[in-house]
Structure formats: C-alpha cells, structure tokens
C-alpha cells in the first residue's frame, strides 16, 4: 500500500471494498468505496437500516469490518489498536452520553485530562470549547447535564468530541433528538464551526435536507448498504443517477436546489448607474438563491441588489433565479 500517495492527494479517509455482514447474516454494508478529503464534511444519508451507522462505526472500529480496507491519512488502520485509533477521532451520537453526575465543564475536561493535560490547562481548553459551541462557560459550566436543554446537551457533546482536537469527527444523527427549530440553529452553528475548524467530518443523517445543507459531498445509501451516488449537493439534486436516488431526494428537489445554488455574476443583470445604497435589499455574491428569494418575499420586491464586497454588481430578479436554477441542471 502506497501510504504517501493517499495522504498526499488530500484524502483523509479512504474506504476500499468495505463490507460488513453481521453474525446473523445481515448484510449491512456492501463493497463500499468512499474517499473523504481533508477538511471535507461528508454526509451519509439513506433510509433506516441502510448501513450508515455501521459504516461510521467501522471507521473508528466500534464495528469490525468483514472485508475491506480503511485508511486514515494513508495509514491502514484496519489492524491498528482500536483504542489508540479512537483517540484521533471524535465521535458524537444522538444520545450524547454525558456523565450525568459531572458538571458540564468536567464532562468536557475528561478527555484532555485523560491525555495528561494539567487540570488548569484542561479547564481552560474546556472553557474555550464551550464558548466555541455557544455556551457561556460562566453560565453553563457548573451545571449538570439534566439542567440543560436537549440542544445545549448536544452542544456539550460536540465540545467534548472536539476536546482532544481530533483531525476526524464522526457524527451519528447528532441533532436528531432536538426539535426542528433548535435543530436548524445547531446545523447553522455547526456549519460555521466546521468552516472555522476545518475538521474532516463524516456525518450520518436520514434527513436529505440536513445532508444537502451540511455536506460538501453527500453519499446516498440504499437498503443492504449499497452506495447509490456520491456527489456534491448541487449535482445530487440536479442529476440523480437513477430513479432510486431521484425518489429519495424527493419531489421537492427543485426547491432544495434553491438552497444549494449560489448566486454568481452570471445570474445577475447589470444596471447602469445604480449603487448598492440605492437598493434597500442586497445579498452578496455567494449567497444562495433561497436567501435571495426570501429577501424578495420579506421586502415585497421583485429584485434584490447583488454585491461583491463593496462593489455593486447588478440585480437578481425571479426570472434570474429561474435561469440560475435551469443552469444548475446543466452543471
Ligand atoms: N449488531 C448487529 N447485529 C445484527 N444486525 C445488525 C447489527 N447492527 C445493525 N444491524 C443491521 O444492519 C443493518 C444496518 O444497520 P445500521 O444501523 O448501520 O443502519 P442505519 O442506516 O444507520 O439505520 P438508522 O438510520 O435506522 O440508524 C440493519 O439491517 C440493522 O438491523
């Protein structure tokens, strides 16, 4: 195995011919090939029982593969000590599994302490992480998990998974147990956090909306652990490879494309003599079509100004949105 080849090409995780058949004969994952780039956020999505969690748990060896190879940074980890392996991999699950009799700060400090950090350093690091996930340490650090909301507990789970600063983060339906409003906020915050930290993340969800919102790439699985398509959200929605994927991405995929298609200069109509200040409503190049439409609806206007930094580049109209969507189909 040429270790440097796969480490050098920007691949962080490479699964090759990975399969899992459980002892009772259930085929959970079949001959899976999947590469995850360094700093990439990949979502595994598909119906219940299609092998998403099994795939995730093979990466940190909570489940032993039946056949196939797992490489992390070009290193074959299939035969590595699983305990050592898991130190470099954060793991966040739906039932976050915080220690109920320990305060929030202590929960987050556990891992750094385990690695031999001094108490003062571990505490400082835990405070930083709590702040990073949006929990004011002075306010929440001394609480017990039962004194937090479900969403706050999930944030502590994310902070704890980040505590060892692992290059790889595995997340199994981490926001599945919270209500839709909190969930949307956690998703938004997590997206921001991910951009900031540049971790390599494999994220399991059964929710296609969550997958296309969060994923740089999305892997769609079918029953029996078959990978149907592995693509960017835009390509997945515009070009499902077969009817199975098309059915899974659903009849609303046109609407979803609004949320993954970003405005670029080509979508914009130039307007002579107009400056950004002349238009009440503007969006920046790179915002999504959905954001632009939402602003048009909010302000009851049939156009928004588009800016690129301080520069005004033109206006986007509903017709422009339509054109952009049609172009995204060609992509
Ligand atoms: N320990 C086990 N022994 C036997 N079969 C198992 C075991 N764990 C999972 N399975 C089976 O393997 C298949 C894949 O399960 P897995 O949990 O990976 O799916 P999933 O896509 O994550 O599902 P969900 O979205 O419902 O969590 C299912 O048919 C499941 O019943």
TrEMBL record:
Keywords: ATP-binding, Nucleotide-binding, Transport. Belongs to the ABC transporter superfamily. This is ABC transporter ATP-binding protein. InterPro entries: AAA+_ATPase (IPR003593), ABC_transporter-like_ATP-bd (IPR003439), ABC_transporter-like_CS (IPR017871), CBS_dom_sf (IPR046342), P-loop_NTPase (IPR027417). Residues 13-249 form the ABC transporter domain. The keyword Transmembrane does not apply. GO terms for molecular function: ATP binding. It comes from the Bacteria. Transmembrane segments: none annotated. It holds the Pfam family ABC_tran. It comes from Nocardioides bizhenqiangii.
């Amino acid at each position: 195995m040429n270790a440097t080849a796969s480490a050098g090409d920007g691949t962080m995780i490479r699964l090759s011919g990975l399969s899992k058949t459980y002892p009772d004969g259930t085929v959970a994952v079949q001959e899976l090939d999947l590469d995850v780039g360094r700093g990439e956020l990949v979502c595994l999505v598909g119906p219940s029982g299609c092998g998403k969690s099994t795939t995730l748990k093979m990466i940190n060896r909570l489940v032993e593969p039946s056949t196939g190879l797992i490489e992390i940074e070009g290193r074959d980890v299939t035969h590595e000590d699983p305990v050592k392996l898991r130190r470099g991999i954060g793991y966040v699950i739906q039932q976050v599994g915080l220690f109920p009799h320990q305060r929030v700060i202590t929960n987050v400090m556990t891992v750094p302490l385990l690695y031999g950090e001094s108490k003062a350093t571990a505490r400082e690091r835990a405070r930083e992480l709590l702040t990073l996930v949006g929990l004011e340490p002075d306010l929440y650090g001394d609480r017990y998990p039962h004194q937090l909301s479900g969403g706050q507990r999930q944030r502590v789970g994310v902070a704890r998974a980040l505590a060892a600063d692992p290059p790889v983060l595995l997340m199994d339906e981490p926001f599945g147990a919270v209500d839709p409003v909190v969930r949307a906020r956690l998703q938004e915050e997590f997206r921001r956090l991910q951009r900031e930290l540049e971790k390599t993340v494999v994220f399991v969800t059964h929710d296609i909306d969550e997958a296309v919102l969060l994923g740089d790439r999305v892997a769609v699985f079918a029953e029996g652990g078959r990978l149907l398509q592995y693509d960017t959200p835009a390509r997945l929605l515009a070009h499902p490879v077969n009817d199975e994927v098309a059915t899974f991405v659903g009849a609303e995929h046109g609407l979803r494309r609004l949320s993954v298609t970003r405005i670029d200069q080509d979508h914009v109509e130039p307007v002579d003599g107009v400056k950004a200040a002349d238009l009440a409503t503007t969006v920046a190049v790179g915002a999504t079509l959905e954001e632009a439409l939402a602003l048009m609806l909010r302000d009851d206007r049939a156009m928004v100004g588009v800016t690129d930094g301080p520069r005004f580049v033109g206006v986007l109209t509903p017709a422009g949105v339509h054109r952009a969507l049609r172009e995204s189909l060609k992509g």
